[in-house]
C-alpha cells in the first residue's frame, strides 16, 4: 500500500468506497467503480500495490483469469440491457503508472445509444459527461453483486 494511491486508500478504508468491498481473494479485490463508467461497473485490482501485469507474482497471475471471468459473469447477470461486458486494463494517472486495475463494465444498449458510440468511444463519452451513478443504486446493486460473487 502507498499513501498517495487512491486504489490503496479504497482497499484500506481511508478513502470511502460506495457499496463497500464486494469480494476479496488471496490476491485480488473487487469493488464498484467510483468513476463515471456507469452503474454495475466493477474494478478488479491486486491487493498489493502493483503497476503492471509484468509485475504480478505467479499466484496473482494464476488467480486473475478465473476472477475476471467470474466478475464478468456477475456483471452480465445483474445488469439490464447489457450487450457486452468490457474488460479493460488501466494503470495510469497523470501519465504515471498507477495501481493496476481491470475495469469490468456492462455495455448497456441505453448507454451506447445515449452516447452514440461503444468501446473506447463510450468510455470517453462517459468520462466527458462525468455523471456518477446514484449512490443508493450503487449500494443496491452491490448487495446483489456481493451475493453473486460469493458463489464459487
TrEMBL record:
The UniProt entry, under SUPFAM superfamilies, shows: HIT-like (SSF54197)
Give the source's domain of life in one word: Bacteria
Write down the InterPro entries for this protein, in alphabetical order: HIT-like_sf
Name-wise, this protein is HIT family protein
Amino acid at each position: 500500500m502507498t499513501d498517495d494511491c487512491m486504489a490503496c486508500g479504497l482497499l484500506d478504508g481511508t478513502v470511502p468506497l460506495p457499496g463497500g468491498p464486494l469480494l476479496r481473494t488471496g490476491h485480488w479485490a473487487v469493488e464498484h467503480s467510483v468513476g463515471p463508467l456507469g452503474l454495475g461497473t466493477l474494478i478488479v485490482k491486486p491487493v498489493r500495490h502493483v503497476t503492471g501485469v509484468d509485475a504480478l507474482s505467479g499466484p496473482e497471475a494464476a488467480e486473475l483469469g478465473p476472477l475476471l471471468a467470474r466478475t464478468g459473469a456477475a456483471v452480465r447477470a445483474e445488469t439490464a440491457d447489457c450487450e457486452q461486458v468490457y474488460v479493460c486494463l488501466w494503470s495510469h494517472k497523470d501519465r504515471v503508472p498507477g495501481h493496476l486495475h481491470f475495469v469490468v463494465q456492462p455495455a448497456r444498449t441505453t448507454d451506447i445509444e445515449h452516447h452514440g458510440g461503444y468501446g473506447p468511444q463510450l468510455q470517453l463519452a462517459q468520462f466527458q459527461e462525468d455523471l456518477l451513478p446514484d449512490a443508493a443504486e450503487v449500494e443496491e446493486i452491490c448487495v446483489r453483486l456481493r451475493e453473486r460473487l460469493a458463489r464459487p
